[in-house]
Write a sequence for this structure.
């Protein structure tokens, strides 16, 4: 079972080496799909073992380009500021040893250990337990055959991760692994952790209600 890791980047020089390094030991290939970085991100990624692919910017577009180029039987989508845990590859292979499992995700852990971020981690576990709805920062992985069957990575302006999860759930069972990925708290700190959590919740509700995706993206990125 060959494992491909796809990482979209745009000016992620501060984080990308750690992200790639966490993946290269267990992956058969690590593809960094760069959207035009000007800070040396591709060079840093290549130096620690990634194959670089150039793309026009846009997370869904970059993930789609990487998935098309991937040669593995399993494709794992990893954020540039997220690190995989030791043993991640064995955990993925064990999970996919069950033919009914089409993909899955990891538990979320922030690199910031303050009480508010522990509360956010608890909220993520609750969401996943109740709704079986992991987000992209939890390192989603999927069988290549299933990804091909659903037409590849959904090409939308925002929340392609939720579209992917919804499509996978229609094809089989998702597994939520106990191992945690460690992701940077930086995006939560930029707007404030609780405000960001509320914005994420409202965006997810808008997605669930079928609101036009471009409108969600315009509102969320203001």
């Amino acid at each position: 079972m060959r494992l491909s890791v796809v990482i979209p980047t745009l000016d992620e020089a501060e984080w990308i080496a750690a992200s790639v390094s966490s993946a290269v030991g267990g992956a058969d290939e690590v593809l960094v799909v760069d959207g035009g970085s000007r800070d040396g991100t591709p060079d840093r990624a290549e130096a620690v073992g990634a194959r670089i692919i150039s793309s026009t910017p846009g997370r869904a577009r970059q993930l789609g380009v990487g998935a098309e180029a991937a040669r593995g039987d399993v494709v794992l989508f990893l954020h540039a500021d997220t690190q995989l845990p030791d043993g991640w590859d064995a955990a993925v292979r064990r999970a996919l040893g069950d033919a009914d499992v089409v993909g899955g995700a990891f538990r979320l852990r922030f690199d910031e250990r303050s009480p508010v971020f522990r509360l956010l981690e608890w909220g993520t576990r609750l969401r996943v337990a109740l709704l079986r709805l992991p987000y992209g920062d939890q390192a989603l992985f999927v069988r290549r055959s299933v990804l091909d069957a659903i037409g590849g990575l959904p090409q939308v302006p925002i929340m392609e991760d939720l579209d992917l999860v919804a499509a996978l759930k229609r094809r089989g069972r998702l597994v939520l692994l106990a191992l945690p990925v460690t992701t940077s708290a930086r995006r939560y700190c930029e707007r404030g952790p609780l405000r960001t959590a509320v914005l994420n919740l409202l965006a997810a509700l808008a997605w669930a209600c079928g609101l036009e995706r471009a409108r969600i993206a315009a509102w969320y990125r203001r």
Summary: The first strand starts at residue 3 and ends at 9. The beta strands are 3-9, 29-34, 51-54, 74-77, 82-83, 101-110, 141-143, 173-183. The chain is about 45% helix and 20% strand. The mean pLDDT is 95.
